[in-house]
Amino acid sequence: MEIQRDELAAGEGDPFKGDPNFMASLARGLEVIQAFTPQRRQLSISQISQKTGIPRAAVRRCLYTLGKLGFVYADDGKNYQLRPRILSLGHAYLASTPLAKSTQPVLKHLSEMLNESCSIATLDGDDILYIARASSSRIMTIDLDIGSRLPAWSTSMGRVLLSYLPDEQLNDFLGRITMIRYTPQTVDSVSKLREELKRVRQQGYALNDQELEMGLRSIAVPLVNPDGAVVAALNVGVHAGQVSAQELRSRVLPKLQEAAQELSLLLK
């Protein structure tokens, strides 16, 4: 769940105001952590405050506490970075999730067979969260690894996951997202996205043709548990100059679907 960007303890419009069980200080600390991204690895107190809406004095206290606990540091005393210990916060989830633990061998085999990068992601808020990945080469300008996040609406795995949401949840999602035209290929309206999601649901896969980044094509299919619920998505990403959209459908999709069936057997 995304933490609301306001003064959580007493800010106007705070959805948790008056809830005696809600720890505003903990929420602020978590939002400070989430302010760091692969594109912004170093942030000052004022930059974090501007990005999160948390007052600078509160950001300073959060960073002081996180620093004492070994989660952040600032060599120059001004520009903060996350420390490797931050990985321990996600390790418990990844270590306890059967999907994340058991899929790596299948992903590795699929990646080697196709000589392409393969990933598994779940829906987390309005983003997809990468929980497993086997990479044959770097095909994006940003690094992707376990724990990486991307906007769900603009990715093949995200569209697969969104297409299986109940209507009420999907309508809520479409009503709050901000669509960015990443490339000339990007779907640029909610109505077009809604139609694309219907198509994805009907055909059972999503193909993203250079909508997130020029030169990148990807195709994704759902991972279904024994109860018939879609719990994650599996995709293959390729260089657009090397693999056409038609080849993705004819050569890659059948292998992807076979791997998805195998992975589904592991979902308890």
Summarize the SSE layout with pairings.
Elements lengths: L23 H11 L10 H8 L3 H13 L3 E2 L7 E2 L4 H10 L1 H5 L1 H11 L2 E8 L2 E8 L14 E3 L4 H8 L3 H10 L13 H14 L2 E4 L6 E9 L5 E10 L5 H20 L4
Antiparallel strand pairs: 1-2, 3-4, 3-8, 4-5, 6-7, 7-8
Concise synopsis of the structure shown:
With 268 residues, the protein is an alpha+beta fold. The chain contains ten helices and eight strands.
Keywords:
Beta-Lactamase, Arc Repressor Mutant, subunit A, alpha+beta, 268 residues
Largest sheet, in brief, is:
6 strands, antiparallel
Q: How many structural domains can be distinguished in the coordinates?
A: 2
Tell me what the CATH architecture of the largest domain is. 2-Layer Sandwich
Radius of gyration, whole Å: 20 Å
CATH fold-level name of the largest domain: Beta-Lactamase
SSE-based structural type: alpha+beta
Q: Report, as a whole number of angstroms, the end-to-end distance.
A: 24 Å
Using the coordinates above, name the CATH class of the largest domain.
Alpha Beta
Percent range of helical residues: 40-55%
Report on the architecture of this protein:
- The chain has 268 residues and is an alpha+beta fold.
- The chain has helices at residues 24-34, 45-52, 56-68, 87-96, 98-102, 104-114, 156-163, 167-176, 190-203, 245-264, and strands spanning 72-73, 81-82, 117-124, 127-134, 149-151, 206-209, 216-224, 230-239.
- It is 41% helix and 17% strand.
- It has 2 domains: 24-84, Arc Repressor Mutant, subunit A, CATH 1.10.10.10; 97-265, Beta-Lactamase (2-Layer Sandwich).
- Residues 1-13 have low confidence and may be disordered.
- The strands form 2 sheets. A 6-stranded antiparallel beta sheet has the order 5-4-3-8-7-6, sandwiched between helices. It has a two-stranded antiparallel sheet with strand order 1-2.
